[in-house]
User: Fold these one by one.
Assistant:
Number 1:
Amino acid sequence: MQSLTIGKHTFNWGSRTYVMGILNITPDSFYKGSRVEHLDAVMAKTRQMILEGADILDIGGQSTRPGSGRISEGEEMQRVFPVVEAIAKEFGIDHVASDWQELVKHPDVDLVSIVTPPSTHMEITLAALEQRKAVLCEKPMALNAGEAALMVEKAKAAGVLALIDHELRFLNSRRVMRGMLQSGAIGSVRHCNYVFRSDYRGIADRAWDWWSDEKMGGGALGAIGSHVVDSFRWILSAEVTKVLGMLTTHIKERPDKNGGNGMRAVTTDDEAKLLFRFSDGPHTEGATGGASISVVESGKYENRLEVYGTKGALMVEETGELWRSPTGSGAWRPVQVDQDHMAQGMREGSWSRGFTAFAIAICDALRAGRTTVKDAATFEDGHRVQVVLDAIRASNESGCWESVS
């Protein structure tokens, strides 16, 4: 059973059902009965919900009802924060923060988990490291290799736990695959393939957001390509030496969610076709790789990694199933793998299963005062991935193979 402690309160997930009360500080939310616009009414509603058994309060300042107007971050904060302060004061909640800088500085914060758009990763990371906080940064690590290199430098100076959220490393199937490859089960690697297929962004009327903006670090290459590159590097224990990339934007504009009927241009890729060459190493000799990534592709969801060697092949699928094909067999045979645990309430999928194991390992390291987690992607790994991503973008512009420095 997993638990979460916030201040004086501990939530033991799975022990019972927790009730959440909703306060909509907005005039146009879905449910009229949840709308409260004046502070006295808000506090009366809050007291009523707590008396009726609410454990958690959700305070909403931006409606997502179809046709509702979009407001700025500042206006949303003006709606929400006075309510948060009033509730905190009445119910003896000691710490309330209106911005992330204040929160990062708080002495009770042990780790800063950065899940914001990539354009903000460096700023938040450097602020956290300056306070000597442990950091878990989402991928891609930064906007470019220059930013990532600075983050590596500051993390080394701080001497704290600093990791990139490549949670797929913690799937049992991928760990077994790596162990089999390293033990020589399929001989020397000749080539590897990665297929990622989703229609997550295939609906053309999905609203424009940071994913659509190159300046904010959006796009399939950064979001999924970073996992592809990290998976190849970690599984093969080899570096990418050359890349050829073709990035495509199929949906070229999306509805502007700030209201009206306007459209905004999409400046990021939603499909990536990639070719790789790898360094020679203990498990590779003249190895090549390919990846097909799409977030606008209909059909069965795929997140599949294949590795082909001189003695056979290994394949791991989204489901966590691992397969082996000995040379000459003409068939895939299942490899026994322990089922991954997944935290209660998470959506079924490899990302959730991997992150559950990763999160437990991070908490164990923090409790023990360690600055490393076995098998986790470090900031140095994140920087190497970023160097490859930069080379892929350069290749897309030039139409030629690019060397990875």
Number 2:
Amino acid sequence: MMLQGWRWYGPNDPVSLDDIRQAGATDVVTALHQVPIGEAWTRSAVEERKNLIENGQPGRSPLTWSVVESIPIPDDVKRLGGGATRSIEAWIASLEAVASAGIKIICYNFMPVVDWCRTDLEWELPNGAKAMRFDQERFAAFDLHILERAEAPAEYSEAARRRAREVYSGMTQADIDVLVTNIASALPGSTTDPLTIPQFRDRLQQYRGIDSAVLRRHLSEFLARVTPVAESLGVIRMTRRGRCSACRALHPRRKTIRRCSMRCPRKPTASASAPARSACARKTICPRWPSASRRGSALRICARPSGKATACRSSNPTISTATST
């Protein structure tokens, strides 16, 4: 079953709950965007928002707050991993508050420095409609000539640098201000703090020495803390691209296979090579098949012959919302 859910940014969103109803949606995807990143959500605040969505307009078509997107993960967790004890405890408290209200699908991002970004938020299409857009040339102009990141010139081809100069030369100060806002400032639903250009440079400096392997380890340490709590509460944790968070975070490229308590949607093969059978010692319940994960008979080794952890890459038709590392 697929539910029709609508992303809603709270009472200040210009899209009203009635607009959501008129669009045909039955479920709401939202969060407590007013709570500063790193602070714990309270049960009373969650219940208040839930009551507004589900009972605030008697007589209207019913809506259900079924998905939280997102509980923001503070920046220090990404930089320090398990050492960011206070921030992780606050995240767990938010998780518990949401679960107490009966909301069991929670999305989160684990993106360093900035969350999702676009170069254009109101790009006009040929039919007059407007859409968000990411333009690589405009982003290169930002990176090379506005942010002036020291390593940037070496990461672009000569043709790309030339085109970025042309794009930047054609910008007015107003154009530059808008581009900075779109990329460096937190957009609606963002899980990172808004940044000025000096703050952006400072944040990049804080990530010196944190490569993909270190960031992956920090995510692993975060998951090791929150996963037992989530499992005990029956909460499904989701990252974007529809993969099981644990499989994707801990084994995105390694030639190992992951042992999951799940019915694998990829039809696990028994022909995985011997080297690939060095399954991860930690057993993780896959949130994509919560019913199967509680049956011991569903314990499977999920891998392709290549040994890559691919078990959780297939979409579960019962879950329509996921949010990226």
